[in-house]
Amino acid sequence: MFTGIIEATGHILNVTTQGTNKTFWIQSPLSHELKIDQSISHDGVCLTVEEIRDGAHRVTAIEETLEKTNLTSWAAGRSVNLERCMIMNGRLDGHIVQGHVDATAVCVDRQDLDGSWEFRFAIPEQFAALIIEKGSISLNGTSLTIFNVTRTEFTVAIIPYTYHHTSISQVQAGSIVNIEFDMIGKYIQRRATL
Known about the structure:
Layout: E1 8-18, E2 21-27, E3 39-42, E4 45-48, E5 51-53, E6 56-61, H1 63-68, E7 79-84, E8 103-112, E9 117-122, E10 136-139, E11 142-147, E12 153-158, H2 160-165, E13 176-181, H3 183-193
Antiparallel strand pairs: 1-2, 1-7, 2-6, 3-4, 3-7, 5-6, 8-9, 8-13, 9-12, 10-11, 10-13, 11-12
């Protein structure tokens, strides 16, 4: 479990493909603190640390993960948001995030408001019931509040700290991001359909 509060950004050093899997070497300020077999959120995707070397760590994404996320477009040099699992004896500053990406969203607009930023995203209509005004969403692993919600779009506002300490600054119109909808909302929707 995660909170959507990003601890650091990492930089992809290398990407290799073996069969239907992709393996990533990521250099970050956290890498030397990680342990083999530890779960880490990478842009909202929970991946297992397989190896640690020289201030970098290696993770692999399998076909199921690649089909539901934007990891197929990851390349060397890209920045990714990183968060270690939450410690259960502390504050939950964001919201409950599993690291299980539900879908991707496309940035349709980005506005610089001279002190903050607004990003508008489009999602597939099948997820309309999972977005609510002032609800929570995980966007590339970052816990954010959504507003100006329609059936297929929502907006997020970004404060300077988040803009400068996560990979959101790289998102432009046309960028594809990973999204995880609020877990409680998913359970409510599931119950309503039974």
